[in-house]
Amino acid sequence: MNKPAEIPTDLERSAFWMPFTANRQFKKAPRLLARAEGMHYWTPEGRQVLDGTAGLWCVNAGHCRPKIVEAVQRQVAQMDFAPTFQMGHPIAFEFADRLAKIAPPGFSRVFFTNSGSESADTALKIALAYQRARGEGHRFKLIGRERGYHGVNFGGMAVGGLQYNKRVFGPGVAGVDHMRHTHDLSRNAFSRGQPAHGAEYAEELERLCALHDPSTIAAVIVEPVAGSAGVLVPPKGYLERLREICTKYGIVLIFDEVITGFGRMGAPFASQRFNVMPDIFSTAKGLTNGTVPMGAVFTRDSIFEAFMQGPDGIELFHGYTYSGHPLACAAGIGTLDTYAEEGLLTRASTLERYWEDAAHALKGTRHIIDIRNSGLIAAIELEPRPGAPGKRAYEAFVKAFESGVLIRVTGDIIAVSPPLIIEKAQIDRIFDCVKQSVQSVD
Fold first, then answer.
1. pTM
2. Is the pLDDT confidence value at 339 over 80?
3. 3-state secondary structure the chain
4. Homologous superfamily of 11-60+344-439
């Protein structure tokens, strides 16, 4: 076992400006992680913590898996970096081809990025450029959804629907509108899997088409299951109706699969789970098991071919210094090997019913007003504390960590999404801890 890490001192003076964190509050009472393996983290003091969130929705194969570690070690010793602007290296082509084999049929082209935020912006830019390439350059409007999350870059922020993420930054980009979200607590509370009610919310897209003129709309972007907003599962028939409307008007449909991709839903991608195909889908997180930052955007072959019809030269003026980074590609190949050898891209389908029963067994617990689930994701929504929204869930999160289980909170919603290697006893442990933590707060 590795020597426990030393606990940093004087964190309040540290140079680290932490993301999405109440810095002053955290640094007075830090929660630090120093080591990880399999389903667990360890604190600097050596206390074991069960990972109920797959890191940050990303460590789908569990922590520090040998094939991934070894692949990265080999690659960094062989070649640390190579450019992919007018140059290439074999491992980037190998990884892209491997990814195309697990993608839905007709999605054989992959554009590499470095994060989910970059993947969202890349998908939006490809959609806009595609419309121009096919002679529809008058299409420039982008449609997102309330309570949607597509990262924090300017495009993804603009089409996203989480107001706290953009209220101090302005609108981001022009020409954006939003559909309403699908969360309907009055009709769908404690749904198991897809809610029965709410397919009609897809008609919001018809309303926006009438408002803006569909010939001006380039793309619609949604998460098949909205993760960061608190696990909002699509109502039955909702995604199908969005697909129909986009096809009707020639609008590019983008699925943000940064969270739902790579086995989280019991299939390689949520489009396969729900049997609804977008035109473009963005990924990251589970792509490399969180080992090296990376994202990837998959496009329909017909979209790629539209760019290949013009004169020779650069077809898409877009990319990143680290697109297809050798270490990230090595991590990704090691991840795909691990997924394949252990059947992890479909394992969630064999655990989903047990997971669902364990989550919904919390119904009736004090403060809990809703439970939602799909694949190996679940949300437990708490009644807000009067005058202090979000405080109750945050306190439950801290209690769970102190009890040895890492969960995640957004507002008054607890979200859990463990590594796909989880066993049934660990599922029980997570939900038992959530119940005790929720019951222990006022």
1. 0.96
2. yes
3. CCCCCCCCCCHHHCCCCCCCCCHHHHHHCCCCCCEEEECEEECCCCCEEEECCHHHHCCCCCECCHHHHHHHHHHHHHCCCCCCCCCCCHHHHHHHHHHHHHCCCCCCEEEEECCHHHHHHHHHHHHHHHHHHCCCCCCCEEEEECCCCCCCCHHHHHHCCCHHHCCCCCCCCCCEEEECCCCCHHHHCCCCCCCCCCHHHHHHHHHHHHHHCHHHEEEEEECCCECCCCCECCCCCHHHHHHHHHHHHCCEEEEECCCCCCCCCCCCCHHHHHCCCCCEEEECHHHCCCCCCCEEEEECHHHHHHHCCCCCCCCCCCCCCCCCCHHHHHHHHHHHHHHHHHCHHHHHHHHHHHHHHHHHCCCCCCCEEEEEEECCEEEEEECCECCECCHHHHHHHHHHHHCCEECEEECCEEEECCCCCCCHHHHHHHHHHHHHHHHCCC
4. Aspartate Aminotransferase, domain 1 (3.90.1150.10)
